[in-house]
From TrEMBL:
Residues 109-198 form the 4'-phosphopantetheinyl transferase domain. Keywords: Enterobactin biosynthesis, Transferase. InterPro entries: 4-PPantetheinyl_Trfase_dom (IPR008278), 4-PPantetheinyl_Trfase_dom_sf (IPR037143), 4PPT_N (IPR041354), Enbac_synth_compD-like (IPR003542). It comes from Pendulispora rubella. One of its GO terms (molecular function) is transferase activity. Residues 38-102 form the 4'-phosphopantetheinyl transferase N-terminal domain. Pathway: Siderophore biosynthesis; enterobactin biosynthesis. This is Enterobactin synthase component D. Involved in the biosynthesis of the siderophore enterobactin (enterochelin), which is a macrocyclic trimeric lactone of N-(2,3-dihydroxybenzoyl)-serine. The serine trilactone serves as a scaffolding for the three catechol functionalities that provide hexadentate coordination for the tightly ligated iron(2+) atoms.
Amino acid sequence: MRNPPLFPAFVSQHSVNFDKDAPDLGAQFPGIALPESLGRAVPKRKAEFLAGRFCVREVLRRLAPEHAEIPVGTGKNREPLWPDGFVGAITHTLDFASVAIARARDAHGIGLDAERVMTDDNAERLLDKIASPQEIAQMKRKTGWGTGVALTVTFSAKESVFKCLYPQVQRYFDFSDAWIEILDGERFSARLLSTLTPSLTAGRTFEGRFEHDAVSVCTGMVVTPST
Ligand SMILES: CC(C)(COP(=O)(O)OP(=O)(O)OC[C@H]1O[C@@H](n2cnc3c(N)ncnc32)[C@H](O)[C@@H]1OP(=O)(O)O)[C@@H](O)C(=O)NCCC(=O)NCCS
C-alpha cells in the first residue's frame, strides 16, 4: 500500500491496511509473534501491535536484513526498542499501520502518527486537553479548516513530536509543551514552549510534514544531526 509522503529519502517506510476483526489475526501477519504481555489484550490491541511489528519487519528486511527477524521490544514507557544504530516510529489506527525507520547517523529521531479526523463536536470537547484556543484559532484562520480537522492535525503533529523527541527526553511531556502552526499545504512547524532537555530548549522549532483528507490525517517529523 502507498506510504504517506512525509519523509526524506533516507527514511524507509512501510504501511499496511488490516482487518482488526479478522478471526485469525496471525494469518494476516505470518511470523510475527505477540509478546506475553499482550496475551490477554483485546483483539484490536493485538491486531494493531501485529500490524505495526509486521511493518517494522518489512522495513528492516530492506534496510538491515540482519535485524529483521529479531523482534523489536518495548521499553518502560511503551517506546519501541530499535536495533542499535537505528531510530524509528510506529503508528496504527483502526485499519492502518505504518512504520518509518532510519539509520541513527542520518536521524536522531523520527515521529510518525496517523489519526481519524475528529468531528467538530468531539474536537470542541477535547480542545482544551490538546491545544490552546489561540493555537487552533490561528490554524483555522490560516487554513480555512473546521475545528475537527485543525485539532486532529494539531493532535497528530504533537504525537509525532513526542515520538520523535522521546529518545532524547526519555520521559512523558505534554501537549502544552509544543505549539503547532501550518506553514503551507504540506508542512507544519512545532515550537517547544518548555525546555525539555539542556539542548531541547523552549523556543526551538522543528518542521514536519502532514497529509490529510476528509477521514484521516498523517504527520511525520525527523530530527537530523544538523537540525
Ligand atoms: C505514546 C503516544 C504518542 C502514542 O500515540 P497513539 O496515537 O496513542 O498511538 P499510535 O498508534 O499513533 O502509536 C502507538 C505506537 O507509539 C509508539 N510509542 C509508544 N510510546 C512511545 C514513546 N514513549 N516513544 C516513542 N514511541 C512510542 C509505540 O510503538 C506504539 O505502538 P505499539 O505499542 O504497538 O508498539 C500517546 O499514547 C501518548 O502517550 N501521547 C501523550 C504524549 C504526547 O503526545 N505529548 C505531546 C507532546 S507535544
